Amino acid sequence: MKKLLILLGSIGIVSSSVATVVACNKNTANENTKDKVQELKNAISKAEAIIKGKEQSSPLQVDSRALKTLIEELKKINDVAQATQGLIQLQEALDSYLAMFEPGSIPSIKYGITETLNQMKEDKPLLIDTDTALNKQPTNKYTNQLSSRQNSASSIVATTTIDDVIKNAITTLLKNKVQKLDVTKLNITTKNNEFAQINNQNQIEFGKIDVDVTYNNENVSASGWKISYASEFLKQSKDLIHQWDQGVKMEASKIKLPTSLPFVGGSEIGKVLETLGPAINSLVPSKIPTVFDDNDPDYKKIDGLLKMLNKLPHDILNKEIKFEKEMIQDTPVGKANIKIVVKTKALDLIKSLIPTIINFKNFVSNQTNKDLVTNLFKYLTIKPQSYNDDGYGELFENIKNNKGQKVEFKSNLEGILFNLLEIWKDKNGKQMTEGQPIKFSFGLGLGNQNPAEHMVNLAYVAKKIGDVEYQALSKLINPAELLNIIFGLASIKEDNTITIKIFDLVPVPLPIGELLKDSLIKMILTMNTDPDFDKHVDLKINKFASEIQVETPDQKWVVMDQSNLQTATGVKFVVKSVSYTLTDKNGSHKIEKTIVNNNDKFVFEFIMKLDGSFLKPQAK
After folding, report:
1. What are the backbone dihedrals phi and psi of residue 418, each rounded to the nearest 5 degrees, phi first?
2. SS3 state of residue 499
3. Could you give the 3-state DSSP secondary structure of residue 128?
4. Which of 481, 388, 430, 410 lies closest to 296 in space, CA to CA?
5. Where does the signal peptide begin and end (predicted)?
6. Which of 354, 443, 456, 555 is most buried, by the most CB atoms less than 10 A from its CB?
7. Residue 439 pLDDT greater than 80, yes or no
């Protein structure tokens, strides 16, 4: 009402003093008008500055519409009487406006209540318990009665209704959102409830209920609110279903880094590379050092980079990273208990991969297409060689196994595995890391044997260091076959398997589709969900069909294979169909859905494009 009076008063100002203006002496009036109008203009400027500041500092608490309307009317004033009245009206309106920002004031509290309840729409429902929202309490007997307990001694029945739950939830929310709210002055009434439901088509419908609120015996809103309510499980599930029904499309460059990362947390990957890329390029030398001391300028750069990384907080790069997986597989000779253990440290990985990083930098700098991901796929498949005379190819020229035979490297993937399983040394034998950079142990137990009793340490080539025997990686799987496996994953479903030979003896079918379904596929599909999704929803992927696709020079997307990769201009990962089950944490409510793409869109499309144009060879 007060805002309405302010607005009506502002309109009345414009026509209120015509007679007064006519009666004034023209000369005197002109001088007084000029001064008074200027004073009003100054006051308006100050008021507008206050509004701007409040809207920037407290955007959720601001309703400046009435004051802005008054100011627009006041700007039309051009005589002393109107200006005098305008100054009074402006001050009163400004005082009322500023009262909204005084914690505990009635205008401030009413505005806070209004803004909070206004947000309780379909996209931001009031959150309560799942069973309550769905009217699925075990003892429920009546439409709005959620639970019933009978006292055997007094035969008194105590009930909790949906109205009580909604009132309590709103009260709690308002206490947290509105400063200095006095709950004893708050009165909430509800009516016309419609419970949430999961219908026969497995669609989620949020609950609806009409809410009226008074504060200090004053109506906060004449029309009240029809608010939506749900639970975390219902909201998170509905958001996910909507995303996948519509099709999710993401670009690697626009993914935000975790906020926990120092300096760059919360920033888009593309923006980070654009900003820090030139600095990264300058920190990584263009030549692979041959001697690990400061007399080698390339090693000096690497050492400076490593010292900088060591200054990261919490010593995060020196913490052990451990992956341990046990599984049981059927084999031609019976059940096999398999155990895989991988141990490493982030800093050891970086140190071991420095030659590859330098070589990849030079490789990208020589390519017309600067996309990092596309070039990485290409790089993995080609034979190790030097670029810009960086010395990388020479590192693999004289590698011999324990029989004195030369080891052939057919792809950079094999070279990376060698660098991860062996120790990078300079020409004098000085090691970059202490011990094996990545420790890979493999255990096999047949029948009831415990695989931990037969752990085997793996290296790229067979060797013995001290009392520890290292078996060659080729005993587990031929490194040259890994590329075939990767290309085999370019089109995969949940039931796909690959066969690997263990120690050249036991062929083991590896359920790669099943393993990826519960790890990589699930992780990728939930990339765009709420950070707390896993706390409220159990997601099970039942079936899926996915592809790694490349863009051809004529701008068509096809399934990646060895024949089209080297001419590809882009890479993306797509999920074409998925069947899944969503379950609440109590296991009480399940939602089963199947989505198949209709050729116009995918369930999930991840364009793996990152601009690597900042990678350039350094001038000598």
Report:
1. -60, -45
2. strand
3. coil
4. 430
5. 1-19
6. 354
7. yes
As a residue count, the chain comes to 620
Nearest to 244 by CA among 580, 514, 587: 580
3-state secondary structure at position 395: helix
Place of tokens 């001697």: 291
List Cβ neighbours of 476 (8 Å cut-off, separation of 6 or more): 442, 458, 500, 502, 503
pLDDT digits (tens, 9 = 90+) for 47-58: 898 888 877 766
Contacts of 436 (CB under 8 A, 6+ apart): 421, 422, 423, 459
| pTM of the predicted protein model | 0.73
Q: Are 290 and 305 in contact (CB under 8 A)?
A: no
Are 597 and 605 in contact by the 8 Å Cβ rule? The answer is no
Indicate if the pLDDT at residue 236 is higher than 50.
Answer: yes
Distance from the Cα of residue 416 to its chain's centroid: 29
Q: Where are the domains of the chain?
A: 38-56+63-100, 106-136+160-230, 231-252+477-619, 312-473
Confidence of residue 265 (pLDDT cuts 50, 70, 90): confident
pLDDT of residue 189: 96
Total H helices, total E strands in the chain = 19, 24
Which residues are registered as beta bridge partners of 321?
344
State the virtual CA torsion across 98, 99, 103, 108 in degrees, nearest 10.
Answer: -110
Q: How far apart are CA 11 and CA 21, in angstroms?
A: 17
Supply the pLDDT for residue 479.
80
Q: Give the sheet arrangement for strand 438-446, strand by strand.
A: 320-331, 334-345, 438-446, 455-459, 468-472, 463-465
pLDDT single digits (tens) 304-345: 888 888 877 667 788 888 888 887 777 666 777 778 888 899
Residue 213 pLDDT exceeds 50: yes
